[in-house]
Amino acid sequence: MNITFIEIQNFRKLKSVRIDLSKQTTLLVGANNSGKTSATLALRHFLVEPEMFSTNDFTLSNWALIETIAAGWEAQAATQNAVAPSLDVWEPALPSLDVWLEIGASEIHYVRRLLPTLDWAGGALGVRLRFEPKAIPELYRDYLTELKTAKDTKLAGSASAPDHDYKLTLWPENMRNYLDRRLQAQFGVRAYLLDPAACIGPTDGIAKPQLLPKGIGPIEGNPLSGLIWVNAIEAQRGLGEQGSEQPDADGQAVAAERKPLSQQLRAYYAKHLDPYTLPDAADLDALEAIEKSEQAFDKRLETGFSSAIKELQGLNYPGVADPKLTIATRLRLTDGLNHSAAVQYELAAPAGASLPSPLRLPEEYNGLGYQNLISIVFRLMAFRDAWMRVGKAEKVSALRQEKQASLAPLHLVLVEEPEAHLHPQVQQVFVRKAYDILRNNKNLKDNPALETQLIVSTHSSHVAHECPFSCLRYFRRLAPAAACVVPTAAVINLSEVFGSNDDTDKFVTRYIRATHCDLFFADGAILVEGVAERILVPHFIREHFKVLNRCYVTLMEVGGSHAHRLRKLIEHLGLTTLIITDVDAGEAQGHHKSTPPKRGCGQVTNNATLKEWHPKKTLYDELVNLADQDKAKTYDFPQFSVRVAYQGPVMVKLNPADVATEALPSTFEDSLAFENLDLFKSIDGGKLVGNLKEIVTTKTNVAELINGTSKVVRGGGKAEFALDLLTIKENLNTVKIPKYIEDGLKWLELQLDQNRQQLLKPAAVPAPAAPAASAALPS
């Protein structure tokens, strides 16, 4: 049994999304505020802690519909022929979680209550958990009663003090205000069966959950109880914080101390190891040792306190009728974990050294990163052992005759942002080993009857780097639209990008894993041609583009011949991208050998990105004459753009008295040289810089300049060229940026700023349809 996917509706930023789950580990990735935390909270609220729902968990755009429903109730109450309110009109606004399970034929006994038909023999089963009004008529009456009471109170105040104009607002002002206080009293989670035949796949990351049939009733109780054992590790673990909240070994919130690992050890000991709890033969030695220690210590206390007790007797206490004072001990082994040095780290002694005692330091002396790693790993171990009822937990469960007679067949573990305080190498170790830890029990090894699924949300490219990209689920931010006036999210299953295993997919997977995974967390991307651009473009941005410098933009060196291989990934991510590449002019005939660019000679580009992605043009003349607005490709859904930036004409003067003449560069290096001829006449540097300096100072016409620079640039040394520019005595901000790069960066800066404004600015609110009702109002 495993969860194949979940669909979340109307919960915070998640208006309607599907999250496909891998059989083992699923990684939730995406930029900040893209909805990853909303997804993990939805799972926790619906599956573990429904009492934690608040009005803030409703998607903000849905409050317009809810207030329209409430206004309709007020209007009905003013008439004599009021009709009963209907739950159906609330359905588009109610938070819900659809859980779809894959059930084997041998597991039918677990899901008897969920079977769609009596002849069902295995496959997909779906359950919708919906947070909805417990009783619509009661909510109707209570809301209108409280509303009327508030209005009557204001009227009474105005009548008693006609000269005083009361400006205050009494509760409830509206339905949102009413539910801020009464939500838990009036709402609860109910479950409904779903039809596997009516299941529809998502489109562009937007789910299409099935509508419930009219008049369908909820299932009694929680149908997932006994099927799924859920544990969670929240993002804010409060390490080293006094008075914060920490979960115990079972995930229950308890008061935290400064030593969270000590606390977890105590909780684990009490649940699984405490010899006082239903002792068995293995505990007898420990209990006997404790009893002997108590007796010996009691004798020592009696001797030590004898003089003090005699002194009390000299004060006529205790009297004849008073109980006699005595001192005895009751040892509890967990007391040994309460003091500040209960958990220690032992340091290795120097080689060959003989020490009288081990070198140890208390818990807080270890780095916060390792404290966090040990804490998370121990929590995972505790979750696993609680699910498997290791040690005393099994006896306690049997003694209490708990309803859950057998183990839940599925263990779902949620971990938020494990990278907190962990350096990159430790992050990678954690994500590699986490699932193995959850399965490290003799009864779980290769046991298909007991499954574990781990969901990790992260902002770390290092964590994403360690997982197969087919396990990644990318949360993409969507700007407000007419259908939803607040920013929401779509979820992209990246197995659709990395699943075909063709040459392109293999290249993208291997390339990203060899570099970094910042694409999955960035607001925008810059793909550059070579190492010189990778070194210098960040400096151009820092010196000249202050707004762009504040954005989260990832820069990747991919080469002009490979940028187009990232097309499918960029389009799935919906990531605004600037591609800085070379026009790479070639001869018209034969194998299109690279050559200095010229107009009107039928030259072609050898750049696959320009030919196959955008602007899909081959002739050099078409590319060099292309208008700036045509260098960008805009996608409708999601709304984002990709722009190419390549070399164009540069007007140069070899001498101040010369007439400006058009030069056609073909690489970043010669374009930079053409834009900064005066600088290159005086600059000192390595081989390539020296060669360019010689050319710009000795050539007498533009044709010689172009041919000379083209030849030396092909000779290599581009990394050294970029490093030489970083060390020039002149300020780097005096270097003129090649125009094609400057225009591209201006475009990217404008696009990202517009994206930010769209996410912050709500769309126009459509007028909700008036709710309908059809039954007579109950008395």
How far is the N terminus from the C terminus?
Answer: 47 Å
Helix content: 25-40%
Strand order of the largest sheet: 8-13-14-3-15-16
Using DSSP, what is the number of strands?
Answer: 26
Major beta-sheet overview? 6 strands, mixed
Class by alpha and beta content = alpha/beta
- Report the total helices: 23
Overall morphology:
globular
Percent in strands: 15-25%
Tell me, rounded to a whole number, the average pLDDT.
Answer: 84
- Rg from alpha-carbon coordinates: 35 Å
Task: State the low-pLDDT regions, or none.
Answer: 239-259, 770-779
Written description of the protein model:
The protein is of the alpha/beta class and about 775 residues long. The chain contains 23 helices and 26 strands. A six-stranded mixed beta sheet has the order 8-13-14-3-15-16, with helices on both faces. Helix 7 runs parallel beside helix 9 (about 425-440) and helix 20 runs antiparallel to helix 21 (about 700-715). The protein is globular, with a radius of gyration of 35 Å. The model is unreliable at about 240-260 and about 770-779 (pLDDT under 50).
